[in-house]
């Protein structure tokens, strides 16, 4: 349920350089590193890589020779080479022999590197999509058409709303039902919720439940890129538009034409970028950076934020007109602590996906471990749960994952929670009715605080009408004074 990032492999025999590149790219990409070409080839054999970045001068073979080998075995992977020498012969050899996407000179600039790798990742994705399209166009035989249709259906099923892991009585069921209903209507959707709750997973499911399911779904984390780079990634740019723009770049809006674009962490964007995005949504047109011509695009926008956009509007930090453009339909995704019934199922699903890579194909949780996992509040949501399971697998010496493998805060969460509950109940005074009133007042206050005093959402969670909630607020003296 974490955000799906392009995968980059960096190859460099200098460890310091390797780490610098990794730190520069790791927020926007999933990054693998290799200190030798042999190590890199092993990673390519076992992982789905979009982009390979190689240093030119390495002891076992040159970067050009290595990337030529990559081109022969994995032609769909985009290739970038780094060199400290501006030798025209090297550049020509790199382009001609290894089909290099870009030749970057050292010292490289972080923003130029990010932009280049973003473009390479998009190219790799488009090449894979084109290969599939070519297969479809050549599929004259009925059996081939059936095979292609089956592959498409398999991809659609993998991201379908019913494939989202949750319990039969999960609070997430209501969110999925609402998104399924709105999916058939071509309107923008805003998904709010804490980091790690699976907002991108819901956005993908929305896309595959819509009439745009056979067209691209593309996404970008708006908080991961500087403003100029984000504008280029989304809208594209023309060659020479700025330093480092060595060729035209097709932006995500154009790549998503006919499909869906997912803008994650939209609340982190600057006012200047918000103004440009508003124009795109109003006009249905994009203008690549450095271009004098606008391009028409037909894209459904699904945005997400871990903040409350309405509050940012009140604070003057987010444009009100853009907010209303993005949120004809808005949903709030509940955090993991509000759906404890989902935790065992999600944990089991994550374990099944990860155990083979740790050499423990038969790994399973003990019943006591599942109880501990369910008792913890998971402030980092599914992302934190995944990290905890990875930790357990790394420490395990046997297939059964017992509570002793859990980190201390997770292991003792149940005890602490029970002690806090007993302490709170012991502090409540009065007869049974008075105590129940105090508990109800506390529950209402906590729910309103969590929903930032949005009474519609709080009433919905509590199973009350707005009038019923208002009466209780008056009864318990919780209505804020004007």
Task: Classify the secondary structure makeup into a structural class.
Answer: alpha/beta
Quaternary state reads: single chain
Give the biggest beta sheet. 5 strands, parallel
What fraction of the residues are assigned to beta strands by DSSP?
5-15%
Overall helicity? 40-55%
What does the radius of gyration come to? Answer: 26 Å
Please tell me what the overall shape is: globular
Here the CATH topology of the largest domain equals Rossmann fold
For the biggest β-sheet, the strand order reads 2-1-3-4-5
Termini gap: 42 Å
The level 1 CATH classification of the largest domain is Alpha Beta
Mean pLDDT: 83
- Compute the number of strand runs: 14
Number of helices: 21
Low-pLDDT residue spans: none
Task: Explain the overall architecture.
The protein is built from 21 helices and 14 strands. It is α/β, with parallel strands linked by helices and about 475 residues long. The chain folds into 4 domains: about 120 residues, Rossmann fold; about 190 residues, 3-Layer(aba) Sandwich (Rossmann fold), CATH 3.40.50; about 80 residues, Helicase, Ruva Protein, domain 3 (Orthogonal Bundle), CATH 1.10.8.60; about 45 residues, Arc Repressor Mutant, subunit A (Orthogonal Bundle).
């Amino acid at each position: 349920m974490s955000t799906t990032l392009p995968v980059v492999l960096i190859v460099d025999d200098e460890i310091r350089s390797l780490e610098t590149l990794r730190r520069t790219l790791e927020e926007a990409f999933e990054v693998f590193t290799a200190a030798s070409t042999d190590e890199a080839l092993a990673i390519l054999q076992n992982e789905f890589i979009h982009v390979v970045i190689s240093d030119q001068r390495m002891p076992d073979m040159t970067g050009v020779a290595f990337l030529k080998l990559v081109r022969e075995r994995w032609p769909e992977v985009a290739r970038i080479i780094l060199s400290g020498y501006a030798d025209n012969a090297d550049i020509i050899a790199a382009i001609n022999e290894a089909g290099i996407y870009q030749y970057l000179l050292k010292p490289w600039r972080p923003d130029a590197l990010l932009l280049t790798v973003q473009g390479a990742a998009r190219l790799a994705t488009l090449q894979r999509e084109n290969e599939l399209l070519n297969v479809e166009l050549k599929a004259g035989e009925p059996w081939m058409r059936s095979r292609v249709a089956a592959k498409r259906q398999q991809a659609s099923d993998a991201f379908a709303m019913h494939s989202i892991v949750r319990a039969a009585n999960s609070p997430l069921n209501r969110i999925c039902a609402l998104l399924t209903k709105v999916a058939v209507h071509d309107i923008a959707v805003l998904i709010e919720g804490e980091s790690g709750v699976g907002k991108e997973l819901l956005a993908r499911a929305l896309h595959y439940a819509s009439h745009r399911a056979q067209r691209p779904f593309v996404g970008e984390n708006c908080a991961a890129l500087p403003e100029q780079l984000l504008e280029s990634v989304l809208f594209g740019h023309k060659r020479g538009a700025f330093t480092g723009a060595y060729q035209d770049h097709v932006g995500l809006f154009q790549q998503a034409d006919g499909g869906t674009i997912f803008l994650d962490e939209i609340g982190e964007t600057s006012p200047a970028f918000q103004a440009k995005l508003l124009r795109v949504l109003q006009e249905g047109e994009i203008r690549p950076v450095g271009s004098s011509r606008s391009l028409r695009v037909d894209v459904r926008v699904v945005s997400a934020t871990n903040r409350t956009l309405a509050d940012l509007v009140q604070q003057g930090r987010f444009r009100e007109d853009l907010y209303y453009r993005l949120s004809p339909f808005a949903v709030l995704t509940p955090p993991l602590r509000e759906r404890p019934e989902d935790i065992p199922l999600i944990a089991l699903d994550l374990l099944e996906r990860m155990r083979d890579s740790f050499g423990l194909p038969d790994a399973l949780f003990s019943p006591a471990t599942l109880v501990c996992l369910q008792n913890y509040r998971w402030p980092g949501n599914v992302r934190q749960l995944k990290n905890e399971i990875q930790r357990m697998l790394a420490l395990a010496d046997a297939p059964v994952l017992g509570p002793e493998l859990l980190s201390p805060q997770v292991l003792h969460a149940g005890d602490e929670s029970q002690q806090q509950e007993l302490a709170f109940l012991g502090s409540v005074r009065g007869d049974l009715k008075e105590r129940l009133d105090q508990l109800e007042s506390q529950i209402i206050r906590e729910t309103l605080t969590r929903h930032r005093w949005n009474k519609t959402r709080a009433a919905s969670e509590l199973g009350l009408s707005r009038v019923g909630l208002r009466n209780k607020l008056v009864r318990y003296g919780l209505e804020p004074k004007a």
